[in-house]
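Shipment paperwork, digital attachment
Item: protein structure file
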Amino acid sequence: MDPAKETPIRSAVELQGAMLERHQEELSAASHPVLRLRRLIIPGTPTAGLLVPAEESPLAALPESARSS
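Attachment content:
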């Protein structure tokens, strides 16, 4: 490979790697509330049916119109 082209390619790959790492962190953070809600409503899981105060509910962040449907 031509050494003059190696630096731009390496920079592009490193940038893509950093972006993928950031996306992985965002997806991981977004999945935690979904998994928590799933444990609350899916029968057969250790915390199924556990009631939480309304203000702690993952649904509390939704607009009122979305919660009633």
